[in-house]
Amino acid sequence: MRDEQRNRRPEARRPGPGDPGYPAQRAPRLASLAELDAAVPDCRACPRLVEWREQAARVKRRAFRDWDYWARPVPGFGPPDAALAIVGLAPAAHGGNRTGRVFTGDPSGDVLYAALYDVGLASQPTVTHRGDGLELYGVRITLPVHCAPPQNRPTPAERDTCRPWLARELELLRPTLRAVVVLGAFGWQALLPVLAGAGWQLPRPRPVFGHGARVLLPDSRGGPGLYLLGCYHPSQRNVFTGRLTPAMLRETLREGAELAGLRQPPAADRR
Predict the structure, then answer these.
(1) CA distance 127 to 104
(2) What is the Cα–Cα distance from 236 to 106, expressed in whole angstroms?
(3) How many Å apart are CA 46 and CA 35, to the nearest integer?
(4) pTM of this prediction?
(5) Which domain holds residue 225?
(6) 90 with 146: CB under 8 angstroms?
(7) Residue 4 domain-assigned (yes or no)
(8) Element containing residue 229 per DSSP (H, E)
(9) Residue 23: inside a domain, yes or no?
(10) Basic and acidic residues bias located where (predicted)?
């Protein structure tokens, strides 16, 4: 008996939510987007981001002093059979970090959801909180970094730690996913290695981000391929300076929807 106990190998400890290896260990084990969306908010793998998101929830903006902030990682949002994905950067400290839903409660989200509504991909033009009745049609919105970062700037290490969540999300979307609209250079650079790892073939040299960039990535597994489209991020600065106008955003979303096969969305084009 003592020999058996001596020779028995201890079971490897699985990383907990506060360990840097938690996303890499947990994400591949999730069998559905519902499971993924439930698991992401438990993550505490990046200490700097945990501290910042929780500090923002304590030191609230005056306009939101009565809010009970979400203050956790913000999961993606949209149907599990989406043909089009939209990839941003990270939640805003007093936007998604407050409301618990990506691109909700901040100026960038106001512009994005209005454009989605205008091209028939969202049920309403204005969104304020989880449970406000919003539905997305054939579209899922997600992020390469799920926690609000200081100054909206995640570090490369934080981006890489969070990457397994995005990788698993796209893998689960793979059967129906046909196009991705990427909002900003950070999301573009974060997404490319994920797509390559998932079996979509990147050209050499790798495609460079730019508004209006468009590339078809062949599928090494024999699928129909994936269209990748670049769009400036609908940040306050980009919108106020006219670098990105609502019309430009609508045009890119409309192109993405057409390439994804969403030619007849439930809501008619309003612009």
Answers:
(1) 6
(2) 9
(3) 21
(4) 0.91
(5) 37-259
(6) yes
(7) no
(8) strand 226-231
(9) no
(10) 1-16
